[in-house]
Amino acid sequence: MAEFRVWAPKPALVRLDVDGAVHAMTRTQDGWWHASVDATANARYGFLLDDDPAVLPDPRSPRQPDGVHARSQLWDPADATWTDSGWAGRSVEGAVIYELHIGTFTEAGSFDAAIEKLDYLVDLGIDFVELMPVNSFAGTHGWGYDGVLWYSVHEPYGGPDGLIRFVDACHTRGLGVLIDAVFNHFGPSGNYLPRFGPYLSSGSNPWGEGVNIADADSDEVRRYIIGCALRWMRDFHADGLRLDAVHALVDTTAVHILEEMATETDWLSQQVGRPLSLVAESDRNDPRLITPRDHYGYGITAQWDDDIHHAIHTAVSGERQGYYADFGALATLADTLRRGFFHAGTYSSFRRRRHGRPLDTKAIPASRLLAYTCTHDQVGNRALGDRPSQHLTGGQLAIKAALVLGSPYTAMLFMGEEWGASTPFQFFSSHPEPELARATAEGRKAEFAEHGWDAAKKGDIPDPQDPQTFQRCKLNWGEVDAAEHARLLGFYRALIALRHNDPDLADPWLERLVVDYDEELRWITLSRGQLRIACNLGGEPVTVPVAGDVVLAWGEPTADGGGTVLEGHSVAILRHG
């Protein structure tokens, strides 16, 4: 006997379909419908609302073997086989995280294929794998941010059983797993939830209608969201979540949903006996996210920090379009590295208003902010999806890596950056509806034009619906051993090992970070204990006023009195004294 239940306060009648047989359901006063029915362990089921003959999938579907428009399938996490009982877990603070997209990380694009690359990640020195969204979405391939059935796992990747094998394999190798969760909107294809209840709000965001977390009858929607978050960590043993665009979660209640989620995550952490982390993506530069709850913050573990990315990328590359406009100077880079946020109550020319709030660097460690040279957004939201490695020299890429991995911040890599992958990461989708496909393509063109990309004006934007757009984004693992790629990979490995093993690089407090620079000569140095990270961003040799034994370098640094001569586009890590 199986118990079926669904929250559906909108329809006057809900019936249950199990393998084609229709059963009555009983409604309770809180809008939940219940039925106990004989069903096989893998029965297909769904719900009939009022007099509509269409069988709709379960909003809390555990599995969608035939896609988001089809019936759900029973799946019990208790039947899973785990071998990770020895995994004690760890917090993300201070770790090295590796963001990847299952569909393009390997040629096969599955969890099982990704398992075959885990030993490579261990050898690289990675601590956590961060999966771009793996919830169910329409079509066979896409970025995953248009999920509509948040509780189930995208079947083409391997479904829930494939995810369990992947997480188990990660834990066996000492790798933690973060899962990217999108709670700020539903995808446009296959979203039947509004027919069940008030899942949508009266507002909207850039990706569609907002989620009802503060309007009337929102309590159950909040439970739906938090229940989903806990499911990834409880049933799939994930070590935490990356929370997508939390600034789009419009919550006017006294207890913000992020605070509530953090509280329940901490409770679950105590139950499972290992650390669980929440990492928020936010463009607000608001320290309240990562401020402890006993100091009136939300208590989120960490958050992405785009200001650090922008400051590093523009200083090295020279790009200034769109939201890069306020960045580029070494003074800006130094200020951002020292303070965590560049915009901290300061005017943003891109937003045309004041932005952000200062971070209390004496109370909040830098390890609660994530630094990175690129992410899926910072590559995929470029008009052509081109990586920095397609424009910059090996030395420039090494400088960016040293500034991130040598910083006090928690570090994150985007798949393939460590060897300067030549493949792009473009926006791709496989919406089955032609009108939605057209709207997606046009929307991307408009967004790129707004951000100042010339390709948008020339009409060179890759068609997201073209299968070749997806195919060309798959990593080419055959290039890893090529000389020009192997050198950069070796530098990354050595840099990550130094980060793990040198105690000076473990200090998370910005108060002890010293940054010097010369705007005209284009050099910048970071002093961390006895280590000096010296970078020459210019194309000509320059003498940097720091000295010491060379620990790691890109180029051939030479001593010059009390300084060090760095080649153009090079970096050296020196041990002083």
Automatic annotation (TrEMBL):
GO biological process: trehalose biosynthetic process
Domain Glycosyl hydrolase family 13 catalytic as annotated: residue spans: 99-499
Pathway involvement of the protein, from the record: Glycan biosynthesis; trehalose biosynthesis
Site (Transition state stabilizer): 377
GO cellular component, one term: cytoplasm
Active site (record annotation): 244 (nucleophile), 281 (proton donor)
Binding site for substrate: 242-247, 306-310, 376-381
Protein family per UniProt: Belongs to the glycosyl hydrolase 13 family.
Name under which the protein is recorded: Malto-oligosyltrehalose trehalohydrolase
Annotated source species: Mycobacterium triplex
